[in-house]
Specification:
- The protein contains 5 helices and 6 strands; from the N terminus they run H-H-H-E-E-E-E-H-E-E-H.
- The protein is α+β, with helices and mostly antiparallel strands.
- Strands 1, 2, 3, 4, 5 and 6 form a 6-stranded antiparallel sheet that branches.
- A hairpin with a 3-residue loop joins strand 2 and strand 3.
- The longest helix has 81 residues.
Length: 311
């Protein structure tokens, strides 16, 4: 029993046609890309050739101009030389008449004229070439100096840019450190206010008049003044606390912020904000004490502010 080979089915033919169509499309795309690339390359070469041709034409015109100028110069020098020698360049030379006696004698040899014109032309040409070379060398020297100046300026600009970037980086680092320190100080101040009830509203450098120990006179002592607000459960006290710059020799100072009528206020959130208790005597006037006594002073203020309120 024999089996005859079966031919391709319709699906196989369709797949082959699709593959053939895809291959043709790819071929056409590659061909189109190649043509466009070749055209771009041709246009680039054509433009470059035209630019070189234009530069060659300009150079030729320049050489023609220089040649014409040299020819005019040579003609002028030749005319000047002929005028000095008394020679008419356009006159025809007429040979003298010779007699039989003259013909019988041997003629004296006539020296050949020196090629003066050729010598003058060569001298002028060499001089013009030397002038052109000198100008060219001078131009090259100027261009070299200008290029050196440009390079120096560019190096300075690069150095300035690098320095500016470095300074910017340093400033950013300082700013970041300052922001971190400020955030830390704010946290410390918040903790300090939470534990002690003291809030510092301002800090300034100033002086405070103190009595001199040696003489009966007053002198200004440098201090750091803190504008403070110390709060209790029902009332708060505003005052200025001055700390000496030299804590080993100076004195701390407590100064009331205002009169006794306005020093005390009802604490925030305390209903009708009624007037607080009257200040004790030791807080109504300025007080000076040693830095070692500062904890005692603040504990007495805190005890007063946290005392039970009279109903």
């Amino acid at each position: 029993m024999t089996h005859e080979p079966s031919g391709p089915t319709a699906e196989d033919v369709q797949k082959i046609q699709e593959q053939l169509g895809m291959a043709r499309r790819q071929y056409d795309e590659l061909k189109s890309v190649g043509i466009v690339k070749a055209q771009e390359t041709f246009v680039a070469y054509q433009q470059a050739a035209e630019a070189r041709y234009k530069a060659d034409e300009d150079q030729i015109e320049l050489l023609k101009s220089d040649n014409s100028r040299l020819e005019e110069r040579v003609a002028a020098l030749t005319k000047e030389r002929d005028a000095r020698m008394g020679v008419d360049v356009g006159a025809k030379i007429v040979p003298p008449e010779t007699s039989e006696a003259t013909m019988q004698t041997d003629p004296e040899p006539v020296p050949e004229p020196e090629p003066v014109i050729e010598t003058v032309e060569k001298t002028v040409h060499d001089a013009e070439i030397q002038i052109w070379r000198d100008k060219s060398a001078q131009s090259d020297s100027v261009m070299t100096g200008m290029q050196a100046t440009i390079d120096d300026l560019r190096a300075q600009m690069d150095k300035s840019a690098q320095d500016a970037q470095q300074q910017r980086a340093e400033q950013d680092a300082v700013l970041a450190a300052s922001q971190t320190r400020i955030a830390t100080l704010e946290k410390i101040a918040g903790m300090f206010e939470l534990l002690t009830g003291i809030r510092v509203d301002g800090v300034r450098q100033t002086t405070h008049a103190v009595e001199s120990a040696e003489e009966d006179t007053m002198r200004d002592e440098p201090v750091v003044a803190f504008d403070c607000q110390q709060s209790g459960p029902h009332q708060k006290l505003r005052y200025t606390f001055m700390m000496p710059v030299d804590t080993d020799h100076g004195e701390c100072v407590y100064a009331p912020a205002a009169s006794t009528e306005t020093l005390m206020e009802g604490a925030e959130g305390d209903g009708n904000q009624q007037q607080g208790q009257e200040l004790p005597v030791f807080l109504q006037e300025e007080i000076e004490f040693a830095p070692a006594m500062a904890p005692v002073f603040f504990s007495r203020v805190s005890a007063f502010l946290h005392a039970p309120r009279d109903s």
